[in-house]
């Protein structure tokens, strides 16, 4: 059975502050449903939740490289401007990642330097996805196919090594921008957390992911009863028991 995508997890030096930032930006509720973590429950049930965890590597570890960033949608030009201003007011800043001067989206950082983009309202690819329109990652086509099979989500984009998957019910898209994939500076501070399907155990889920092309990671990033693996692009993912 397909695994359940529980959340995109973010390592944080100050989890309470970062969770408060994303809660205020997205209008989502913060709960503590996993040990040591703050989970942001979407107001739109089809959006991918966010989970903020204390950085396992101590001070400065949350500043390591990341293989994912977030795309926040807007409903109008006024809403887009207000969303950008809200990020800045809440402690974020403008971020230069080499984007062209005529790019229509706005690239920003959250208070711990994690990249996010505010997407204009006329973007058709993210129409109807919800406030968190996309989790954008590094990886080639093999990564998108891996996640499509692992989650049972169809490929909604598959062109020129770029892929995207989305739940059959809709909501947030998860996308990979194609190769070559840049090297990481340690473990990615943003990663996907999946839970075993109901009626299966943790080792069943790990075995299924290994069959699809994942490997067990050397370092254990999550606390407690979980297994850390890497997907075909070498990005960490965490496997949790079924609820």
How would you sum up this structure, described in words?
The chain is α+β, with helices and mostly antiparallel strands. It has a single domain (4-176), classed as 2,3-Dihydroxybiphenyl 1,2-Dioxygenase, domain 1 (Roll), CATH 3.10.180.10. It has helices at residues 15-26, 77-89, 141-151, 202-212, and strands spanning 4-12, 29-31, 38-41, 50-54, 68-72, 93-94, 106-109, 115-118, 132-137, 155-159, 162-166, 173-176, 190-195, 215-216, 227-230, 236-240. An eight-stranded mixed β-sheet has the order 2-3-4-1-13-16-15-14. The longest helix has 13 residues, at 77-89. The radius of gyration is 17 Å and the shape is globular. It starts with a strand and ends with a strand. 42% of the residues are buried.
Write the layout of secondary structure elements.
Blueprint: E1 4-12, H1 15-26, E2 29-31, E3 38-41, E4 50-54, E5 68-72, H2 77-89, E6 93-94, E7 106-109, E8 115-118, E9 132-137, H3 141-151, E10 155-159, E11 162-166, E12 173-176, E13 190-195, H4 202-212, E14 215-216, E15 227-230, E16 236-240
Parallel strand pairs: 1-4, 5-8, 9-12, 13-16
Antiparallel strand pairs: 1-13, 2-3, 3-4, 5-9, 6-7, 7-8, 10-11, 11-12, 14-15, 15-16
Short description:
With 243 residues, the chain is of the alpha+beta class. It has 4 helices and 16 strands.
How many helical stretches?
Answer: 4
Side-by-side strand order of the widest sheet: 2-3-4-1-13-16-15-14
* Poorly predicted runs: 58-63
Number of self-contained structural domains: 1
**Major sheet, described briefly?**
8 strands, mixed
Query: What share of residues is helical?
Result: 10-25%
Can you tell me the CATH topology? 2,3-Dihydroxybiphenyl 1,2-Dioxygenase, domain 1
